[in-house]
């Protein structure tokens, strides 16, 4: 692999052992993939920071890198295994787990990471068209490529951490023009008007065209519908990028000479039935925020409660938001708790200790959550809208 003089210096250990280790890892993986050189990145986002995912081994690796290394570029990290900002989770988390998770987060912050704790890093720093990133959260990767036209592969935790230390990643995969061209044409005949249905469409895209770059012809979608589609596609398949007609900055019109596939209303209904494993009557709580909601969701929830004259919920609503919002929302969070709405900053139920909570079924508007809950926690899932849950369980 060709390395610049500066990259050679880092590899030779002239910027300390942590950067040397990081550069070794990036170069080795890049060489194994056949990359010809490295590229500078402007934002690194690390996933796999939950103690549930990485355990003691991962914690030791992060501590080893932190011993002499600081991030070289703007760097953020994914949600953790329990709420950040000193908030009590509405489910039990063992003390040992809390301590280890805190150590992981503290170490990342010591290395210079933004205290982010979120899977929507594009709301903290908006990616630009054509810029190179090294991101590790599958939904965020798909959003960066699809919605912003930025360039990133889906990097595993250790590689993304290494990229944060040296500010570079191998020039490979979706960093290269020719890998970003659509390979399938998906014509959507059904009307996609909300995040839940957009998620179901994403589920079909991921499970049917995993690893492809689908060109999706669909009615206009808003930002959060695209996010939901990308998250579900990246969960049900290995989808890291779509071109959505009229939305993706790299849209150059429907591709010629590729296979065409039609998705109609019946396909959407069948896919929804496949994903849904419980009814709203069985749901012990409603969860929303996978991917995270931006912090202004708090106002939206207050409006929904007011619109339906609800002062308290008989079954709670849990809402995941970025960890960085914990402090500014402290008062609103406390008020909502009294009404049965639990705002959970900086956490992700999928990588939490939820399987120990004895919950059997939940409702959600996130198809990604519906995909993972039965697999990770043995929890069945109803697909529903928050407003319907409020109407049903509000008093
Ligand atoms: Fe985010 Fe966790 Fe969902 S990282 S996208 S809340 S599975």
UniProtKB/TrEMBL annotation:
Under the heading InterPro entries, the entry gives: PMDh-L-like_dom (IPR007506)
Q: What is the catalytic activity of this protein?
A: (R)-5-phosphomevalonate = (2E)-3-methyl-5-phosphooxypent-2-enoate + H2O
Any idea of its EC number?
4.2.1.182
Which molecular function terms from Gene Ontology are attached?
lyase activity
Ranges where the Phosphomevalonate dehydratase large subunit-like domain occurs: 1-390
One Pfam family assigned to this protein is AcnX
Alphabetical UniProt keywords: Iron, Lyase
The family line of this record is: Belongs to the AcnX type II large subunit family.
Q: What is the role of the protein in this entry?
A: Component of a hydro-lyase that catalyzes the dehydration of mevalonate 5-phosphate (MVA5P) to form trans-anhydromevalonate 5-phosphate (tAHMP). Involved in the archaeal mevalonate (MVA) pathway, which provides fundamental precursors for isoprenoid biosynthesis, such as isopentenyl diphosphate (IPP) and dimethylallyl diphosphate (DMAPP).
Spell out the subunit comment: Heterodimer composed of a large subunit (PMDh-L) and a small subunit (PMDh-S).
Recorded protein name is: Phosphomevalonate dehydratase large subunit
Species assigned in the record: Pyrodictium delaneyi
């Amino acid at each position: 692999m060709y390395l610049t003089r500066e990259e050679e210096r880092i590899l030779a250990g002239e910027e300390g052992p942590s950067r040397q280790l990081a550069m070794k890892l990036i170069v080795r993986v890049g060489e194994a993939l056949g990359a010809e050189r490295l590229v500078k990145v402007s934002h690194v986002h690390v996933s796999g920071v939950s103690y549930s995912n990485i355990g003691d081994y991962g914690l030791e690796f992060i501590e080893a890198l932190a011993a002499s290394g600081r991030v070289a570029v703007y760097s953020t990290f994914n949600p953790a295994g329990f709420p950040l900002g000193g908030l009590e989770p509405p489910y039990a988390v063992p003390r040992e787990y809390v301590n280890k998770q805190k150590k992981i987060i503290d170490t990342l912050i010591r290395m210079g990471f933004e205290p982010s704790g979120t899977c929507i890093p594009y709301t903290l720093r908006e990616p630009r068209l054509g810029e190179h990133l090294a991101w590790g959260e599958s939904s965020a990767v798909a959003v960066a490529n699809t919605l912003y036209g930025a360039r990133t592969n889906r990097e595993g935790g250790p590689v993304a951490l290494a990229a944060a230390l040296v500010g570079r990643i191998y020039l490979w995969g979706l960093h290269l023009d020719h890998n970003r061209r659509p390979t399938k044409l998906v014509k959507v005949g059904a009307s996609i008007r909300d995040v839940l249905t957009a998620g179901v469409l994403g589920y079909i895209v991921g499970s049917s065209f995993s690893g492809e770059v689908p060109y999706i012809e669909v009615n206009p979608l808003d930002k959060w519908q695209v996010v939901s589609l990308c998250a579900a596609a990246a969960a049900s398949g290995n989808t890291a990028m779509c071109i959505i007609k009229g939305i993706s900055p790299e849209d150059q019109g429907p591709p010629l000479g590729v296979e065409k596939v039609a998705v109609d209303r019946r396909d959407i209904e069948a896919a929804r039935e496949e994903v849904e494993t419980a009814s709203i009557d069985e749901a012990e709580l409603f969860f929303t925020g996978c991917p995270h909601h931006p912090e202004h969701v708090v106002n939206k929830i207050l409006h929904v409660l007011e619109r339906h004259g609800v002062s308290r919920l008989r079954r709670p609503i849990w809402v995941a938001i970025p960890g960085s919002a914990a402090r500014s929302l402290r008062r609103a969070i406390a008020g909502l708790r009294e009404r049965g709405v639990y705002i959970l900053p900086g956490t992700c139920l999928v990588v939490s200790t939820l399987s120990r909570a004895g919950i059997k079924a939940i409702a959600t508007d996130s198809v990604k959550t519906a995909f993972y809950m039965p697999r990770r926690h043995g929890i069945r899932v109803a697909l529903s809208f928050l407003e319907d849950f409020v109407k049903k369980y509000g008093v």
